[in-house]
Amino acid sequence: MTQIPVESIRDVRAHFAEVVERADRDDQPTVITRRGKEVAAVVSIQVLRKYQQWEECEINRIIDERMADRSAGVPIEDVMKETLARGE
Q: Which long-range contacts (CB under 8 A, 24 or more apart) does 29-36 make?
């Protein structure tokens, strides 16, 4: 696995177009930090769309799993919280 570049928001501002181009052309994400804490990432639109698709599939999988066990009676709000809390 390749090392993902990590840059401060200040540094990214100085060459934002290059960071975006790297994500788009080379599929190379960049993690952005603020005061040493990771706060965001620049990724290609394809990566974002894949993540959104995975998230939707995961939510549907959990719903199907819970619906199959009618005795559980778990509210959809709890399913959503559980899914989002996983942060996978």
A: 29/4, 29/5, 30/4, 30/5, 30/6, 31/4, 31/5, 31/6, 31/7, 32/6, 32/7, 32/8, 33/6, 33/7, 33/8, 33/9, 34/8, 34/9
